[in-house]
Amino acid sequence: MNDESAWIFQAQQGSDEAFSQLVETYQKPVYNLCYRMLGEPEAAEDAAQETFLRAYQNLHRYDNARPFGTWILSIAAHYCIDRLRKRRFSVFSMDAEDDDGMAFEIPDPASPDPEAESAKQEDRDRLHLLLKDLDETDRAAVIMRYWYDYSEVEIAQSLNLTVSAVKSRLHRSRRALAEMWQVEKSRAYPERRSRESLAF
Amino acid sequence: MNHLPFENWLLNDISVTPEQQRELELHLRDCSYCSALAETGRMLKTARIVTPVPGFTARFQARLAERKIVDRRRRLWGSVLFTLGGLALLMWIFAPYIVSFFAAPATWISVVVGWLVFLGTTLFALFDAGRVILSVIPNFLPPFAWMVLLSMLAGTGLLWSVSIWRFAQRGVPQGV
Fold first, then answer.
1. Domain residues of chain B, as ranges?
2. What total number of domains does chain A contain?
3. Which domain holds residue A173?
4. Backbone dihedral region of B171: left (phi > 0), alpha (psi from -120 to 50 degrees) or beta?
5. Cα gap B59→A48, rounded to integer Å
6. Using only C-alpha atoms, what is the Rg of chain A?
7. DSSP state, A98?
8. Are B51 and A32 in contact (CB under 8 A)?
9. CB contact under 8 A, B11 and A174
10. Given an 8 Å threshold on Cβ–Cβ distance, is B43 in contact with A127?
């Protein structure tokens, strides 16, 4: 029995200390998922805390054959989907925050080309802004796929979907993101586009 | 513009040969859609994990303790309200009887005693009838009927034991 299984077993027997070890281990992935889903540090903190509370209350229903990480992330995803359905968030400030949850990042002047780095960062922020236009379940699938390297089977298990539904949701989301990205880019860099077209 | 097979490679993250890579790069130069697909894919793959503000576990422990107090209080109030509600309901149902009992206790006591006597005599009669039936029936049933009956009982018992054993081994499946 490894540490995690032991903690789960002890937590199921009522040990709060063992459950705290699980919280310590999974706080980052759970918080990150909530943050990517909800887009605000405060909302993400609240959702992550609520996820762990729900896990604590339903620990007796946890199936030991399933990885604990998948189980807890599926609780987080369902909670965020419900929350997004109840009130649709729209403020997204992504990927630029530091470990204290700050939502800004100053380009590193020591990097080879600070301007290029800054442009790359801006591009990434815009991409995350686009994520909010995806359907809640599609967004959860994209986050699980690209932030957690989940397989389609794992995503299907976590979101209670079929594997083919996950595949089609991922493809649809990627296509939608690419299309929105094209529009966004042409809006953001009109002068670059016109220069590019002149070159031909 | 025909995006195949490039769109498929990009969407499914298929690893390509150097020759296919060259073809893909050529296509990306001309196709803004596939180029956007490649770019967004790259960005998604390089996105980093955001961490919570330090002290998350301590905040969780505080929240859990708070929630436990709230739950305990809620359970206590729930049981108090349930008991009081039940008592009120019982009072409402039995109030007319209680009033009439205190108005004429002798009548009520005679009714209750009458019922108890009726119950006792009925039970005695049923026991007598059952004893007579049990002493008569075995003479009517042939021995093979007894064997069939006993086998059926044994089979049912076995099936029940096996079911209990299997549930104990596997557990009852449960979702999240």
1. 6-46
2. 1
3. 3-199
4. left
5. 11
6. 20
7. -
8. yes
9. yes
10. yes
Q: How far is A21 from chain B (nearest CA, A)?
A: 8
Length of chain B: 176
The closest of B46, B45, B24, B44 to B35, measured between CA atoms, is B24
Q: What is the distance, to the nearest Å, from the Cα of residue A66 to the centroid of all Cα atoms in its chain?
A: 21
H or E element at residue A31:
helix A16-38
Residue-wise DSSP of A124-181: HHHHHHHHTTS-HHHHHHHHHHHHH---HHHHHHHHT--HHHHHHHHHHHHHHHHHHH
CA dist B71 and B80 (Å) reads 14
Contacts 24+ apart (CB under 8 A), B62-68: B63/A49, B63/A53, B64/A16, B64/A53, B64/A56, B67/A53
Tokens of B53: 């503000």
Q: Pull the structure tokens for residue A74.
A: 């599926």
Residue of A nearest to B51 (CA): A28
Q: Which pLDDT tens digits describe chain A residue by residue (200 residues)?
A: 678 899 999 999 999 999 999 999 999 999 999 988 888 889 999 999 999 999 999 999 998 888 999 999 999 999 999 999 886 644 444 444 444 444 333 344 444 566 666 666 666 667 677 788 888 999 999 999 988 888 899 999 889 999 999 999 999 999 999 998 888 877 766 655 444 443 33
* A7: closest CA of chain B, how far (Å): 15
- Which chain A residue shows the shortest CA-CA distance from B10? A174
Q: B61 and A181 in contact by Cβ < 8 A?
A: no
By residue count, chain A amounts to 200
pTM above 0.80, yes or no: no
Q: Which residues of B touch A28 (CB under 8 A)?
A: 49, 51-52
Q: CA-to-CA distance for B158 and B156, rounded, in angstroms?
A: 5
CB A154 within 8 A of CB A144: yes
**Domain of residue A194, CATH code:** 1.10.1740.10
User: Are A60 and A42 a contacting pair, CB within 8 Å?
Assistant: no
| A-to-B residue pairs, Cβ atoms closer than 8 angstroms | 109
Convert the pLDDT of each residue in A92-109 to its tens digit.
444 444 444 443 333 444
